Amino acid sequence: MILRIFSVLCLLTLTLNLAPANADTPPELKVLGRLVGEWDGTVQNQKVTFDVTADWTLNGQLVEQKQVFQDGAVGLLIYGYDQASNQYFLNLHDSRGIHWMLKGDWDEATQTFTFKGRSGENDVTVKSTFRNQDTSDWTITLIGSGGEVTELRGTNRRAVK
Fold it and tell me: Is the distance from CB of 18 to CB of 37 less than 8 angstroms?
C-alpha cells in the first residue's frame, strides 16, 4: 500500500514553469501552466526518484503529465479546470493500478494547489506549494476509514539540461 501511495504522490508532482499563454487564455489555465516542463522528483526520507514531463494537450485546455519512476512504474496525470463547478481537477492513473479523480483549488497568496477526493475507503488530499519557478514541495495524505493516516512528502526541481 505504501508503494502504491508513493507512486501516486510522485504522480501528483506539480511544477512552476509558466506555459505560453496569450491574451485570450483564461487566468485559471495560466495557473495550470505551472505544471508544464521537465522535472526531477524525490520523495522525502526515501531513496526514490522519478522523472516528470508535462505539456499542454487538447488545444491548451489540459495539462498532461507523465511520471516515470526508477523502478519502471509509470503515472499519467491530467490537470484541468472545470468552469461549470469553478474548480480544478486532477485525474491520476498509474501502472500499479491507482486511479484517483480529485477536485481542487488554487490559493494565489500561498502559491498552493489543494486537491481532495476519495479512493476506496480513503480520503485523499494532495497539496503542492511552489517555492519559486524551479521548485515545488508536495504532500499526499490518505486517511483510512479507521482514522489511520499515511503521508508522503517530496520535492520537484526543474531538470537541468
Answer: no
Say how far apart CA 158 and CA 146 lie, in whole Å: 38
Q: What torsion, rounded to 10 degrees, do the Cα atoms 56, 41, 34, 134 define?
A: -130
What is the DSSP track for 81-101?
EETTTTEEEEEEEETTS-EEE
3-state secondary structure 37-86: EEEEEEECCCCCEEEEEEEEECCCCEEEEEEEECCCCEEEEEEEEECCCC
Q: Using CA atoms, how far apart are residues 89 and 111, in angstroms rounded to an integer?
A: 17
Distances (CA, A) of 22 to 37, 56, 58, 81, 111: 18, 14, 16, 17, 21
- Domains annotated for the chain, with CATH where assigned, are 2-158 (2.40.128.20)
Helix then strand then coil, in percent of the chain rounded to 5, is: 10, 55, 35
In DSSP terms, which residues pair with 68 in a beta bridge?
A: 51, 74
pLDDT digit string, tens, across residues 82-106: 999 999 999 999 999 999 999 999 9
Q: In this predicted model, which residue has the larger pLDDT, 25 or 80?
A: 80
